């Protein structure tokens, strides 16, 4: 039996109207759960952005004064290369530091515009052979001529993790429970719709309708519920992010944890895909038990 677009659209719209209350409940649950999922993903991206300079296992940074002489830079580099405690190190010049700065403070264009590459200190990013050697290495350079300061990664990273670890776990846990609830609600909504039409389904099977002919309108119904809920979740996540961006200061930990708009769009696309998948999968399971006639 051929499947027409007109039939699919008509049946899907009819099912959505017939179970309006359950549809609204499913959409709301999807929206709330995916809002939390989107928020958790953006928080994770924010932590990754804020800890940009510590990627690759860097344990400490030796920041040089912008006006440090070549001889002072060479002395620090020579000592780093000769220290048995150092596994590897790299030099980040002012241009590279400015590129990092723009990425870390992408949410604060005014701040970025007020800073030039020459204002930022170059640095040596150092990875000790063992984590416990970080104090030994850093202590050698804290009062060295030409050195501005030595910043230890664990101080920065520990702060970020303390702020975000429990929050992420809580958000993901609640989101997981709500996602399961959304799937069950969609499943229940589809089951009610197909149960009300069980005699019609039986007749369709007897006259030669395939399982997919019967299944697709119901799967599309669940997909519509998921996409509508995901769209609402996307709007909520984007709105909250923009409100927080306006509320926190430009040069604060909170601002660094806020991802740029491009990350919000990417997360929104993932949320929309997840909503569609949740609706389609829930509907497929709901319909399956009624197709054995």
Question: What is the secondary structure topology, with strand pairs?
Answer:
Blueprint (H helix, E strand, L loop, with lengths): L4 H14 L1 H31 L9 E5 L5 H13 L3 E7 L1 H11 L4 H5 L9 E6 L5 H6 L7 E6 H44 L1 H9 L4 H37 L5 H5 L3 H28 L5
Antiparallel strand pairs: 1-3, 1-4, 2-3
Helix pairs in contact: 1-9, 2-7, 2-9, 2-11, 7-9, 7-11, 9-11
Q: How would you describe the overall organization of this protein?
A:
With about 290 residues, the chain is α+β, with helices and mostly antiparallel strands. The chain has 2 domains: about 5-50 and about 160-290, no CATH class; about 55-155, Alpha-Beta Plaits (2-Layer Sandwich). The chain contains 11 helices and 4 strands; from the N terminus they run ααβαβααβαβααααα. It has helices spanning about 5-20, 20-50, 70-80, 95-105, 110-115, 135-140, 155-195, 200-205, 210-245, 255, 260-290; strands at about 60-65, 85-90, 125-130, 145-150. A 4-stranded antiparallel β-sheet has the order 2-3-1-4. The chain is elongated, with a radius of gyration of 28 Å. It starts with a helix and ends in a 5-residue tail after the last helix. The relative contact order is 0.18. The model has no long low-confidence stretch (mean pLDDT about 75).
């Amino acid at each position: 039996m051929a499947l027409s677009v007109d039939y699919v659209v008509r049946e899907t719209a009819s099912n959505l109207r017939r179970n309006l209350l359950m549809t609204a409940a499913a959409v709301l649950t999807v929206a709330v759960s995916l809002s939390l999922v989107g928020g958790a993903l953006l928080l994770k991206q924010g932590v990754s952005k804020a800890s940009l300079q510590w990627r690759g296992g860097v344990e400490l940074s030796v920041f040089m004064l912008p006006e440090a002489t070549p001889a002072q830079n060479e002395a620090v580099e020579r000592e780093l290369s000769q220290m048995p405690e150092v596994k590897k190190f790299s030099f980040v010049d002012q241009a590279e530091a400015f590129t990092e700065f723009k990425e870390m403070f992408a949410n604060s264009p005014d701040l970025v515009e007020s800073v030039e590459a020459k204002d930022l200190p170059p640095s040596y990013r150092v990875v000790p052979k063992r984590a416990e050697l970080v104090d030994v290495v850093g202590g050698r350079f804290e009062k060295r001529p030409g050195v501005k300061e030595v910043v230890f990664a664990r101080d920065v990273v520990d702060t970020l993790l303390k702020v975000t670890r429990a929050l992420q776990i809580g958000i993901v846990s609640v989101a997981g429970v709500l996602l399961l609830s959304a799937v069950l609600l969609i499943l229940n909504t589809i089951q009610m719709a197909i149960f009300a039409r069980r005699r019609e389904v039986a007749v369709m099977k007897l006259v030669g309708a395939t399982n997919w002919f019967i299944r697709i309108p119901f799967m599309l119904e669940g997909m519509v519920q998921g996409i509508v809920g995901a769209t609402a979740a996307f709007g909520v996540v984007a709105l909250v992010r923009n409100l927080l961006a306006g509320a926190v200061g430009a040069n604060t930990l909170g601002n660094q944890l806020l991802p740029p708009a491009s990350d919000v769009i990417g997360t929104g696309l993932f949320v929309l895909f997840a909503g569609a998948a949740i609706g389609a999968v829930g509907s497929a399971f709901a319909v399956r038990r009624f197709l054995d006639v």
